[in-house]
Design a protein that fits this description.
There is one protein chain. This protein folds into two domains: 107 residues, Ribosomal Protein L22, Chain A (Alpha-Beta Complex); 59 residues. By secondary structure, it is an alpha+beta fold. The longest helix has 56 residues.
Length: 203
Amino acid sequence: MEVRSVYKYARISPKKARDVAREIQGLPVSDAIDTLNFTPKKAAFLIGKTLKSAVANAENNHDLAADSLHVKEANISDGPSFRRYKPRARGSASAIRKRTSHIYIILTDEMEVEEKPARDRKPKSKKKPAPKVKEPEIEETEEEVPATQENDDLTNVESAPVAEEISNEPEAEAIDEVSEIAEEVSDESSEGQQATEEEKKED
């Protein structure tokens, strides 16, 4: 059976109260009270007050023995905040929040079954990967070239240089014609220069 006690609007911030509530989580009632008595914090006094109220509820309302109880949950939730202001420089004001908390403590006389730690548990059996299937090897075979095709290739190779020679003949003729014309032009220019020199001498 579970027994519950609540302390609402406790004048302490939830962050400070949670540090103390975390220490008594899961302890027997006697150990939790001893821990709170030797903790020099305001939160320890407020949580101890709530814990003693829960023990009194269990003994008077549900006829439970205090020795069989342990702390199942010790939760701290946020309450409303009082807003105050403090004057600061240049006529400004800074806000001050005076926080409150709600303390919830749940006691139970049922013993929880302890779970085995993770290192003692047996590892889960891993599924073995499926065996790889070997793909059939494909043998590469050389394709036989028919004899007629080989003869055609040979004829193409032999005829290639001949075609180049034929194509080069007109180029050679054109080069010879250009060289002849250039010689004629050079001869005419040399004759013209000699004639001009003779005219100058006569003058």
